[in-house]
Design a protein that fits this description.
- The complex is a heterodimer.
- Chain A folds into two domains: about 80 residues; about 60 residues, no CATH class.
- Chain A contains eight helices and no strands.
- Helices cover about 85% and strands about 0% of the residues of chain B.
- The chains are: A mainly alpha, B mainly alpha.
């Protein structure tokens, strides 16, 4: 099959990324980044990673927009206009070269969904075969996150909780 | 893969590009907000259609519901912002 949905998604992603770079005020950039994040969620959904798509759509596209706008509330209106300086020559020349290098390296990646790729042959079969008997959890991703790596997830939760508490303490309205 | 659903997806993507022109070029902020709203309606439908393609509609309905709810909150935040200060340009 040569005709697919990936190409329109790629065009949408590039359009929104370029648009967010070239608009003149911050609120427009926030809006365009919200739609960019949503198209990324569409890419995840199209590739079959439903959980990642859910998080990207809800957090990246919904909550991040709200947080950015809340940040804009605290900024002077004249500071929301972006004054752009022309990019340095090294970036103009170097970044396309880096992109070409990455495209060249992408030739060696295994095909999408290839059962013989290293990622699919190392520990994934163990989880797929044993997670239901070991943990009685029907969703494999949940089994890995919440059962096999429960302490890891617990510590991540502690880190996020601490970061949230620190932000809340810093951003209180009556902070001196 | 269902060719009909694939064409539906691509036509929806083209319609999103039309909205995207208004969001990126839009002379005023109100154009951008309206364009984003239109994109989000198309986006919800795209998510459901992808779910139909993969035969997992119930999961994708959850995603699109969460996205629609949070998109409402986002638009409310933006309009609150525009209400508080007169929009520049």
């Amino acid at each position: 099959m040569t005709y697919s949905f990936e190409l329109p998604l790629l065009i949408l992603l590039i359009l929104t990324a370029g648009g967010a770079m070239f608009v003149k005020d911050l609120l427009s950039a926030v809006l365009i980044l919200g739609s960019y994040s949503f198209f990324l969620a569409l890419v995840w959904a199209w590739l079959g990673a439903v959980d990642v798509a859910f998080v990207e759509a809800v957090v990246g596209s919904g909550l991040a927009t709200v947080f950015f706008v809340l940040t804009l509330f605290g900024i002077e209106p004249r500071d929301t206009l972006i004054r752009r300086t022309p990019p340095p020559i090294a970036a103009v020349v170097g970044l396309p070269l880096l992109g070409l290098l990455l495209l060249y390296a992408a030739n060696d990646l295994p095909a999408f969904g290839d059962p013989a790729s290293p990622a699919s042959t190392y520990v994934s079969p163990f989880y797929l075969e044993n997670s239901l008997a070991d943990t009685q959890t029907p969703n494999v991703v949940t089994a890995v996150l919440m059962d096999y790596r429960a302490f890891d997830t617990l510590m991540e939760t502690v880190v996020i909780y601490t970061a949230g508490m620190a932000c809340w303490l810093l951003l209180r309205r009556d902070a001196r | 893969m269902n060719i009909f659903l694939l064409f539906v997806l691509d036509i929806l993507a083209v319609m999103i590009i039309i909205y995207l022109y208004r969001v990126i070029r839009g002379p005023t902020l109100y154009d951008r907000v309206l364009g984003l709203n239109g994109i989000s309606t198309k986006a919800i439908i795209i998510l459901i259609v992808i779910g139909t393609v993969y035969d997992r509609v119930e999961m994708f309905v959850d995603i699109s519901t969460g996205y629609a709810l949070l998109n409402l909150v986002g638009v409310l935040a933006i309009t609150k912002y525009l209400e508080q200060r007169e929009a520049p340009s």
